[in-house]
Design brief:
Blueprint: H1 3-27, E1 55-58, E2 61-63, E3 67-69, E4 74-79, E5 85-89, E6 96-100, E7 105-109, E8 115-120, E9 128-133
Parallel strand pairs: 1-4, 3-9
Antiparallel strand pairs: 1-2, 4-7, 5-6, 5-8, 8-9
This protein binds copper (II) ion.
Copper (II) ion binds near residues 85 and 123.
Length: about 130
């Protein structure tokens, strides 16, 4: 009683799925639409092997933090918040991305000396982040 109806419904279902898949793969040939979001910044990534070396500020937080980069890497920082932010090294004058307004991307250059560097936002004292250079 249970066997025959379930088998009957299974067969057309499998056929349908098979047809659907075949039609799908033949109909839409693989079209790679790679849309690289351009930030408008003209700074190119410095060295190979440091993929993903960019930062975003969202919700008054630096992301990612900590961020690990190679010495001297140029790091674009995008601010998605309304208020203006900065990335300012806690140790005076080491690095700084200044006046990053809403929707803007400002780059800074990581120190060339390996180490762990903390930074903050000049406008919001509770905003802190860490940059690891190695
Ligand atoms: Cu800020």
């Amino acid at each position: 009683m249970l066997h025959s109806p379930s088998r009957l419904t299974l067969v057309p279902l499998v056929a349908l799925v098979g047809l659907g898949l075949a039609g799908c793969s033949s109909g839409s040939s693989k079209k790679a639409t790679v849309s690289a979001p351009t930030t408008g910044a003209t700074t190119a990534p410095a060295t190979a092997g440091t993929a993903g070396t960019s930062m975003t500020i969202a919700g008054f937080k630096y992301d990612p933090s900590p961020l690990t980069v190679a010495p001297g890497t140029t790091i674009p920082v995008k601010n998605t918040d309304g208020p203006e932010h900065t990335v300012t090294s806690d140790a005076a004058g080491l690095f700084k991305a200044d006046d990053i307004k809403n929707g803007m991307t400002v780059s800074f250059t990581a120190p060339t000396k390996p180490g762990t560097y903390t930074y903050h936002c000049e406008y919001h004292s509770y905003m802190h982040g860490t940059l690891i250079v190695k």
